[in-house]
Amino acid sequence: MTVLVSTPIKAGNSMAATTAMSSAGVTGRNTLTRPSHAAEAADGARIPREFVHRADDSDVLLTHFQACADGSYRMAARWPRAHALFSPVAGSRENPMLMAETIRQAGAVVSHMAYDAPTDLHFLLWDLRYEVPEEVLGAGVPLSPATAVVRFDDVKMRGKRLSSFRFEVELYRGAVRVGHGAASASCVSPAAYSRLRPARPESADPAPLPAPVSPVLVGRTRAQDVLVAPSGTPGSWLLRADRSHPVIFDSQSDHMPGRGVIEAMRQAAQLATGYEHIIVPSMNAEFCRYVELDRPCHLTAEHRRPLPDGRIPTRVTLTQDDEVAARGMLMVRPAAADSGANGTSAPAAFATV
After folding, report:
1. Which pLDDT tens digit goes with each residue over 43-91?
2. In angstroms, how far is the first alpha carbon of the chain from the final one?
């Protein structure tokens, strides 16, 4: 079937309210203030929970949707005080990893509300990146956004159905742009997914769950939230895919979901750098193949020398069956335990990993 470029629902359609917005703030250089996007989108259409593919209302990070005259989309954002997976760092600092989940949800919302994608479609995420501007970190601005501005690009359709797309997201708190990122994904019908992912044989039980590293070494308080286990090889860990986890596996999944993959990357990066508390102000992740649940998956992490601004480039790779399943470049920054300042904390002891 021919793949065609589609035109999304524009402002003026009945699905969403129209709000004129200048595109200059989206494509311009990094600055702290973007007044054209300061207004919240709380007067738009309410976003149903199923449109962000989450089972728990507390995990819905986007609440209202508007289509704009310039072809972009604006959504009201709401971060919880304490997310069940991307919890505050050192007990108080907002976790930038929530930007990754906000970006993923934004792509799903536009797919459903602007392109009429059915809710039974499977979304296959190929890559995702986000970044907190250095000037935001340096100014100590709270990271939780109030507004997400989304632009879809390279949209392809199969007949009348959404097939694949790429999109960019900018996150604002009032007039301050606190983060930005992008992702690309494909949409697969239930029938196509069944052909792509045939039922696993009865003998393919989940791999035994290995004992986790100590939660304190990866910034967690509960063993259930630890996604890595010792492998016996320095700089390498086993992935822990606990299917009873209420957030990572909040719906049926026959593989490790992307949110679990990126949190495992963060935990491996923290172990590799050895700090007691870290934040990840930027991440660039690529998802190459499904991470299966019935056989081992290994993570390796390598970090370079700190950059002049204090960030530590750390590359994390997930390998399964001798093939790369996912990889990411994380910019790690040590975080002070007592506040949201960009202080440093002492490295944890590697001997206990």
Report:
1. 789 999 999 988 778 789 999 999 999 999 999 999 987 787 888 887 6
2. 52
Which residue spans within the chain are E strands per DSSP?
A: 3-5, 18-19, 45-46, 62-68, 73-77, 122-131, 147-158, 161-173, 176-188, 228-230, 236-239, 278-287, 298-303, 312-320, 323-334
What are 86-144's pLDDT values in tens digits?
A: 888 876 778 999 999 999 999 999 999 999 999 999 999 999 999 999 899 888 889 99
Neighbours of 304 (CB within 10 A): 10
73 close to 62: Cβ distance less than 8 angstroms: no
Place of tokens 């703030």: 25
3-state helix, strand and coil shares in percent for the chain, rounded to the nearest 5: 20, 35, 45
Instruction: Find out whether 82 and 88 touch, Cβ atoms under 8 Å.
Output: yes
Helices (H), the chain: 24-27, 98-113, 134-139, 190-196, 258-273
Matching fold, domains 3-192 and 207-352: yes
CATH topology (fold) of 207-352: Thiol Ester Dehydrase; Chain A (3.10.129)
Is 240:212 a contact under the CB 8 Å cutoff?
yes
- Between helix 258-273 and helix 98-113 the angle, nearest 10°, is 160
- Beta-bridged to residue 43, according to DSSP, are none
Q: Is 75 helix (H, G, I), strand (E, B) or coil?
A: strand
- Token pair 């054209």 is at which residue? 36
Q: What is the pLDDT of residues 157-171, one digit of tens each?
A: 999 899 999 999 999
The answer to whether 308 touches 319, Cβ cutoff 8 Å, is no
Sequence ranges of the domains in the chain = 3-192, 207-352
3-192, what's its fold? Thiol Ester Dehydrase; Chain A (3.10.129)
Q: What three-state secondary structure class fits 33? A: strand
